[in-house]
Amino acid sequence: MKPTDVLIYDTTLRDGTQGEQINFSAEEKLRIAQRLDEMGFHYIEGGWPSSNPKDMRFFEMAKKVRFKNARLTAFSSTRRVDLHSENCPNLNALLEAETSTVTIFGKTWDLHATEILGVSLEENEAMIWDSIRYMKAKGKEVVYDAEHFFDGYKNNGRYAVKTIKTALSAGADFIVLCDTNGGTMTNELTDIINEIIAIIPPHQLGIHVHNDCGLAVANSIAAARAGVKMVQGTINGFGERCGNADLIPIIANLQVKLGMKCLPEESLRHLTKLSNFVSEVANVPILHSRPFVGKSAFAHKGGVHVSAIIKNAAAYEHIKPERVGNEQRV
Question: How many CB atoms lie within 10 A of CB 66?
Fold first, then answer.
């Protein structure tokens, strides 16, 4: 891949389904996964196999499908505190999913280790190391999601860094820095990433941010510009609370505006259809005001605007709508 390439990791089928009104059957999840694969997405997170029967059914169905472009990924937590990795049902469910890539999340914020999990900081590190080593011993590519990384770094930076170093030493292929609460400002996020890049090579870093401050897209783009290789998010920003980072404007901004390749050029012209397709499968209203792909994104009503675009569309359109599969309307 070229140095400017960004790996797009979609978690619509897992993190996206944590949105209040978002529910997919196993069959619907498979339809979406196949559509994302056709578009050239690099990673598709199919679900958390041990969390519910529907996700396990999805992975069973997916075994019969040949994905041409994407790596299907199964998701889980680190091992349970009271079990060895080989006896942990969560980790063994990952193996049963039979995906070449697995994603494991662990606690980075010391508050979560001691107050939420109720374990010592040392035991939390051991859970991270053991879980990743177990998956690497099974021949898996491992993406490690450092949950609550930015809050953890701001609260106890030394420990937060220690946990991701532990994950890296255990063999993790990617370390994904997560703004799980969605409360990190863009300038904070960029400053912290620049500090981490001095420790971990940027081609092994990813970003996963939530939208609680309305900054998920901006923060994801800032991370990619800082050198982070993998960008995680969901189609249409589906997700818990205020949602995840919306991959549609992220891809459009990175590739069309900044020249950072994410998907094949032909796929950009299908972004509008993809956005509408996922909304229709989820049975939620299509939002006309979505950037780039909404029905109103290139619609003109005011007389001054209309008069201008008749002469030159660039007067009130920042890109040609056809580039992302949309169209101009008056």
Answer: 7
**For residues 236 and 247, what is the distance between their CA atoms, to the nearest angstrom?**
7
Burial 194-230 (b: 16+ CB within 10 A, else e): eebeeebebebbbbbbbbbbebbbbbbbbbbebebbb
Residues 171, 142: contact at Cβ < 8 Å? yes
How large is the angle between the packed helices 216-226 and 186-197, nearest 10 degrees? 30
Q: Which tokens go with 95? A: 């193996």
Q: Report DSSP state, residue 208.
A: E
Q: Quick check: helix, strand or coil at residue 326? A: coil
CA–CA dist 227, 206 (Å, integer): 9
pLDDT digits (tens, 9 = 90+) for 85-138: 999 999 999 999 999 999 999 999 888 888 888 889 999 999 999 999 999 999
pLDDT in tens, 156-193: 999 999 999 999 999 999 999 999 999 999 999 999 99
> Do the strands 101-107 and 43-47 form a parallel or antiparallel pair, or are they unpaired?
unpaired
pTM: 0.94
Q: Long-range contacts for 260-265 (Cβ within 8 Å, ≥24 apart)?
A: 260/4, 260/5, 260/6, 260/224, 261/2, 261/4, 261/5, 261/6, 262/5, 262/6, 262/8, 262/231, 263/8, 263/39, 263/40, 263/41, 264/39, 264/40
CA distance 42 to 36: 9
Q: Is 116 exposed, middle or buried (0-12, 13-18, 19+ CB in 10 A)?
A: exposed
